[in-house]
Design brief:
Helix content is 0%, strand content 54%. The protein has 114 residues and is mainly beta.
Length: 114
Amino acid sequence: QVQLVESGGGLVQPGGSLRLSCAASGIFFSFYILGWYRQAPGKQRELVATITSGGSTNLADSVRGRFTISKDNAKNSYLQMNSLKPEDTAVYFCNVRTVGREYWGQGTQVTVSS
């Protein structure tokens, strides 16, 4: 059973940084895409960043140059968020996709406010 557990969210001032972690277990398929998504109040969930099993990354235009996604050999993923803005405030979810299957974590709140 795949399990994803996010951590690292919290309250940060504009311009600050946070590092989100997604602890993964049960991922035994060789091809997968790890992703981070976010959902702000009243808005649809949106893609933030993805990284493939081969290490290719993709970032949303709104975070490119400020956020970085990475992973380790245990298939945990990380989202380094720098130069945070109030509009980055949202619940952040980690995700893993493979052929025919998709799994989500429970989310972690990120609030950017002075």
